[in-house]
Structures are given as structure tokens and as C-alpha cells.
Design brief:
129 residues, mainly beta, four-stranded antiparallel beta sheet, 56% strand, globular
Length: 129
């Protein structure tokens, strides 16, 4: 069972990148799929996730309107299209698959790493100003 992320790199502010995450050893079908990131000196945070079974897509506030998550189940791949990148987007990005994402608090949706079962390697995104 493996998730392999790729697509990171060094870009300038305003540029775009597309991250890919390919699953092997299991099918992404019926899983909630997410992207998390961890910046230097900071805790890992949820960026975006999609729950095809629930028809819900979630974005962290700072990436709304700039990032788009999508999945290609036949290709067993989840993507994160990132546009209008900012220096504060610099981080190692991780893909993950789990049972539930996003969670409903009763008032709003949120992401938590605790809900994810499988984790990919990280791919570094560096955005220069």
C-alpha cells in the first residue's frame, strides 16, 4: 500500500503547480482524499480534501479560489492544482486517504490528519517572492 506524491518544485509568486498523488496496492475508490502541508517550524495543516461519496469538497480558507482538488479514480490518482501561489504556500505537501474528510463540526467543515489512514511521501513546494 503506497501513495506517491510528485509535482513539487521551486516557483515564483503568482505561478502555478499541479501536484499528483498515485495510489498503489489499493483503490482510492470509496476513500476520502486529502492534501496536507507542513511549513518549516509549523504543524501539519489540512489544505483540501474531497469526499466523492458525500459529494463534499473542502478548502482551507487561505487557499480558497486558488487551489483545486480533483481525483481520477480509474487512474487511482488525486491532484491538487495550485494557482496564484504565494510565498506562504511554501511547505512540504502530503497526500492522504482516509475514511472521513472533511469532518462536520455541526457548524462547519474542517480537516484533521487523525481521519486519514494512508499517507504519501511529501513533495516540497517552494514559492519565492
Amino acid at each position: 500500500v503506497q501513495l506517491q506524491a510528485s509535482g513539487g518544485g521551486l516557483v515564483h509568486a503568482g505561478d502555478s503547480l499541479r501536484l499528483s498523488c498515485v495510489a498503489s496496492g489499493f483503490s482510492l475508490e470509496n476513500f476520502a482524499l486529502g492534501w496536507f502541508r507542513q511549513a518549516p517550524g509549523k504543524e501539519r495543516e489540512g489544505v483540501s480534501c474531497i469526499s466523492p461519496s458525500e459529494g463534499v469538497t473542502f478548502y482551507e480558507d487561505s487557499v480558497k479560489g486558488r487551489f483545486t482538488i480533483s481525483s481520477d479514480i480509474p487512474e487511482n490518482t488525486v491532484y491538487l492544482q495550485m494557482s496564484s501561489l504565494k510565498p506562504e504556500d511554501t511547505a512540504v505537501y502530503y497526500c492522504a486517504a482516509g475514511v472521513v474528510c472533511p469532518y462536520w463540526s455541526g457548524r462547519s467543515y474542517y480537516m484533521t490528519a487523525a481521519g486519514m489512514r494512508y499517507w504519501g511521501n511529501g513533495t516540497l513546494v517552494t514559492v519565492s517572492s
